Amino acid sequence: MVRAFIDEAVCPACAAIGMEYTAEEVDLPFLGNSLETMLRCEPCGYRHTDFILTGSHEPTRHTLRVATAEHMSTRVVRSSSGTIRIPELGILIEPGVASEAFISNVEGILVRVERVLGQILRDADSDEERLRIVELQQTMERMREGQAEPVTLILEDPFGNSSILGAGATAETMTPEEAEKLKVGMMTFDPKGNLIKEG
């Protein structure tokens, strides 16, 4: 385990200067070797924990045709560099700088989207936009009950650390050109320290 105190770090909760940093190697189910990092503020108790995957594989695309209520329990492992798409619903979840890895299922993905839609609905500027959001929420509710038209769940990862685990899920290797188009939510470097990709 590595433990250090970062003098210049500013706590996002209380603005105190200086935070404790720890890093430890862990082996996570489905995700493999990872580095668990934690920032902690002594004065207010704020803490932020994240897992950084230390391995990478061939870029992959996992696909699942979601057609029944049983598909809701299909396991979804999304690394911090994974992109989730449901084209039929116009849903695109791309990694950002603060993206975290998670293990969930198809229903969990829908719940995450519904939370975001609830926030967007509160800030909607027009009746047309509000109607579209409500229709999308209703569609996802029907999906959970197995009463909606089938949709395609696509999970793409340029580092191959994400997957859909269940009957009916397929996996394929992406071309380097396809992988290059994906956002990764981080800066990546080659062994010589040259910036390869940002964002």
Structural overview:
By secondary structure, this protein is of the alpha+beta class. It has three helices and 14 strands. It has helices at 106-123, 127-144, 176-180, and strands at residues 2-10, 17-28, 32-40, 47-53, 60-66, 75-78, 83-86, 91-93, 102-105, 151-157, 163-165, 170-173, 187-189, 195-198. It has a five-stranded antiparallel sheet, with no helix packed on it. It has a four-stranded antiparallel sheet with strand order 1-2-3-4, with no helix packed on it. Strands 9-6-11 form a three-stranded antiparallel sheet. Helix 1 packs antiparallel against helix 2. The longest helix has 18 residues, at 106-123.
**What is the averaged pLDDT score?**
85
Note the run of SSEs as H and E: EEEEEEEEEHHEEEHEE
Largest sheet: 5 strands, antiparallel
Strand content: 35-45%
Poorly predicted residue ranges: 186-199
Distance between the termini: 29 Å
Portion of residues within helices: 10-25%
Helix-strand makeup class: alpha+beta
The strand line-up of the biggest sheet is: 8-7-10-5-12
Q: Tell me the number of strands.
A: 14
Gyration radius (Cα, Å) is 19 Å
Overall morphology: globular
